[in-house]
């Protein structure tokens, strides 16, 4: 068995289905309908409506990434201390919900958030003011946090359980209080998990068109919606590819950061 | 006190994650057709589900694509893991980097890149374009769960088996395969789940004649989701829940699970 030969089919597969498709996006993005070179597709990001969509996407995805980080870190810490077996925890938080279709789960938030929806009925019962966020950017943020929170919890949890408890004990023995220990030991040691969690939430949040479509009404356009419409409705693949290339600058930036922290791709996910 | 706070916080997050699922469960028993009004308890939608050809066909497509893509991705991914494992450091990092692209890249970009590839190849959009795309985005999940198992492998055991007279193939089946099986299995399950829940990539690579559950739901969003969809997803969810429960109860499988902890 020659192991070098074994690699060949997969290398061909990766070339045909990973590299060439990406090259196609670059090709379409940098040419016009006649096939000649142009930068117009890239430049169209500077038109007012595209810029507005991009700005809103960046803003909403940054906010939901931050909220995910703030919600996920304490949860990951609690779970890391609880000694739950890792498989059962992953299944419960990550795998099991996926067996209920993600579009339906996101749509269910409509029922929960509506003016006369479940949440408002509960708030009304306690004589609290109603929450009217459906079809606003806030509902989109909620949808992003809901869908991507597990992507933040998992890598942070993974990096927390790797921390040697003796390091924590040593810090405490040497006189650090719990806040100091957290800031100087736990947090820096879990940084790779946080970084990988941030990139795993930020990229899908930045590029989504489904969540904005389902929870934002049809009026709020994110950059993902613009690209999706160019491909499925307007049929302008060149413009759509050009905008995707702009979007990929953000993604590549993200990948570089992940690669710097996690050379062999071991830290992310499972 | 702090312990109660911790439990409360965990419970709140779990409520947040499972509230929509509970909502869908309740909606599947809702006699009213609109999802915003409760019209009393009914089992009507469960009955009508089994007469609804369109939904059953979409379910069949979804399961078939998930199963085939997971099987093929597991095969390709496992073989690829072996070859990547035996590579030199530099080419290994390069190939792993390329492998991870579909996982790290935005799904919309992956989706349109497949679409442009199939347009260029003049392929007919339909079952096979969706299947090929699903295989491709599933492979990284398989590699990600098989590679760590290969790293834990003790190379001397394989050599010892051969020294004791086993042929390379026999030694592979008897020594290496059992050791990495948990990784292969969890890679397969991960791939199956990912394929099942995918919408975006299917959206860009499917033809007009083909629908999976996801794309069916997406086209129904504006008109209103048919309640049979809720009953179907409830049935799927409950079956998986039961299956997991049984797996946890079964002594044989839970033994395997405890050896699986390092996954």
Please characterize this protein's 3D structure:
- The complex is a heterodimer of chains A (270) and B (263).
- Chain A is globular.
- Chain A has helices spanning 3-29, 40-43, 48-82, 86-95, 102-113, 118-125, 137-161, 165-173, 178-189, 191-207, 210-215, 223-234, 237-261.
- Chain A has a single domain, classed as MetI-like (MetI-like fold), CATH 1.10.3720.10.
- In chain A, helix 8 runs antiparallel to helix 9 (178-189).
- Chain A has 13 helices and no strands.
- Chain A has 270 residues and is mainly α.
- Chain B is mainly alpha-helical and 263 residues long.
- Chain B has a domain at 59-220: MetI-like fold (Orthogonal Bundle).
- Chain B has twelve helices and no strands.
- Chain B is globular.
- The two termini of chain B are 34 Å apart.
- Residues 254-263 of chain B have low confidence and may be disordered.
- Chains A and B meet through helix 1, helix 3, helix 4, helix 5 and helix 7 of A and helix 1, helix 3, helix 4, helix 5 and helix 6 of B.
**What is the architecture of the domain at 59-220 in chain B at the second tier of CATH?**
Orthogonal Bundle
Greatest chain-chain contact: A-B, 90 and 89 residues
The succession of helices and strands of chain A, N to C, reads HHHHHHHHHHHHH
Order of helices and strands of chain B: HHHHHHHHHHHH
Largest sheet of chain A: none
Structure in a nutshell:
The complex is a heterodimer of chains A (270) and B (263). With 270 residues, chain A is mainly α.
Structural topology:
The complex is a heterodimer of chains A (270) and B (263).
Chain A: H1 3-29, H2 40-43, H3 48-82, H4 86-95, H5 102-113, H6 118-125, H7 137-161, H8 165-173, H9 178-189, H10 191-207, H11 210-215, H12 223-234, H13 237-261
Helix pairs in contact in A: 1-13, 3-7, 3-10, 5-7, 7-10, 8-9, 10-13, 12-13
Chain B: H1 2-27, H2 44-49, H3 53-85, H4 89-104, H5 107-120, H6 127-152, H7 155-163, H8 168-197, H9 200-205, H10 213-220, H11 227-249, H12 251-258
Helix pairs in contact in B: 3-6, 3-8, 4-6, 6-8, 7-8
